[in-house]
Every structure is written in C-alpha cells, then in structure tokens.
Write the structure tokens for this entry.
Amino acid sequence: MPDTPPPHATGAPSTTPVAAPSTTPIAASTTAPSTASAAAPVAVPPKPEAVRSYETMADVGGWHDETGCLVFLAGGGGAIWAATSAEPVGYGALLLVPLAGYVWLIGRRQGREKERLREAALAYVREVAAAQAAGAKVPELSPELRKLAETQDV
C-alpha cells in the first residue's frame, strides 16, 4: 500500500470526511444560544424598592399646582384690595405669596421624585414582560404597574 497515492492526489472522490480546524472555542460550539435559553430556567426579576415606592405614590399628589396658584391669587387679591380700599390689613395677604412658592417647590420636588420612580417602575415592567416572553412564570402586576404598562404599550 505504500506505493498507492492518496485519493485526493489521483483525482478520485474521497469517501472519508475530513474535519476542518475550528476557530471557535469549544464551549461556544457545543451549545447553541437557542438551546441554552430553552433549557435554563428564566429568573423573574425581583421587585426593587423604587417600584414599591412608585406603587404607593402613583396616584398621590397633583394638588400642589392648583393650591399654589390659589394661594398666590389670594395673596395678590388681598394686596389689590388693600391698595384700592382704606384697609391696609389687606397687605398682610402678601405673606401668602411665599407660601405659594413653597407649595409649588414641594410639588416640584414630589413630581421629580415620582418621575424617577416611574422610570424605575417602567424598567421593571419591561424586565417582567421580557421574562414572561422567555417562558418564566411571573406574578401578576399591581394595578398601578398594569396601568403604567398599558399607557406605555409594554
């Protein structure tokens, strides 16, 4: 047999397959991503504290703008009344103007905090939706989170 040339040298088709060298790592070539995700259980994301806070304050507030405006108008109205009448006590109503500013600042701070918590809650809802789409059994969302998910089309 040493005198016979190899099959590829004679032009004859080879019947034995030849493995080509692989450049991919062994761990990457043994399991495909689709089979790895199907076999591994999908973890449900834990509910962060920010989401719990959002659930408690989702429908709270909103009165600061109206109240601040009314207090501001009352202070201005008192000052106008004092200027147009002989009663200088109406100028005391001008003390309501800083109170109106304080109420607006409180409302602004609460609005910013609610927006920050809303973003965290929205991220959590998206994570839960992704886990459910991957096959995880997820708990039912609270009414506040359901409403958020419906408004954002998650």
In short: The CA atoms of residues 122 and 148 lie 7 Å apart. The chain is about 60% helix and 0% strand. The mean pLDDT is 79.
